[in-house]
Design goal:
single chain; 175 residues; alpha+beta; Glutaredoxin; 5-stranded mixed sheet; 3-stranded antiparallel sheet; 4 helices; 38% helix
């Protein structure tokens, strides 16, 4: 009797765990596009002094539809915003490093930590970006945002498979 119950419980968990992992991956990989129409209240342009994961500072101007990083020459810019304590993010950072090498001179990729203590300006930028993209507080981090020639292209929430990132980058480069 106990063996039978144990087998049923084992089978249940054997099915449940992969299902939860698959659903978690799918929901974290939504590619979202935000549209801006004339009925949307205008959000003022503002310049921020962002500090990246290597402690380098960049002046970034963010408006309703544009992101301008004056020192960046690549046509496609990928901004990766993540919390300092993100357990799964190192694998995403490694994936982005590979894509940066693959699309050399076509894309600029950088990581910005969202941390109140060490990067307060990054938090203010993140809050403004959430308003621009019309995101609520249920956002799944990390947040990855693509811009093409300074114009908003797309964004995704959560950890993203390399195939999906590759496709989004290729689409941004093509347009």
């Amino acid at each position: 009797m106990q063996k039978h119950i144990f087998n049923k419980i084992s089978t249940f968990f054997f099915i449940l765990i992969p299902l939860v992992l698959i659903l978690g991956t799918i929901t974290g990989c939504e590619d979202k596009k935000t549209t801006h129409d004339e009925n949307t209240p205008s959000i003022k342009s503002k310049t921020y002094s962002l500090t990246d994961s290597k402690e380098k500072t960049y002046n970034v101007e963010l408006s309703q539809t544009n992101l301008i990083m004056s020192t960046i020459k690549e046509p496609v810019v990928l901004i990766h915003l993540l919390p300092v304590n993100c357990v799964r993010c190192p694998s995403q950072i490694e994936t982005l490093r590979k894509l940066k090498n693959k699309f050399k001179n076509k894309i600029y990729i950088n990581h910005f930590f969202i941390d109140k203590e060490t990067n307060p300006e990054n938090i203010i930028f993140f809050t403004h970006l959430k308003q621009v993209l019309k995101l609520d507080n249920t956002i799944v981090l990390p947040l990855t945002v693509l811009y093409k020639n300074g114009k908003y292209f797309s964004h995704t929430e959560g950890i993203i498979p390399i195939e999906m990132l590759t496709y989004s980058i290729q689409e941004a480069i093509k347009k």
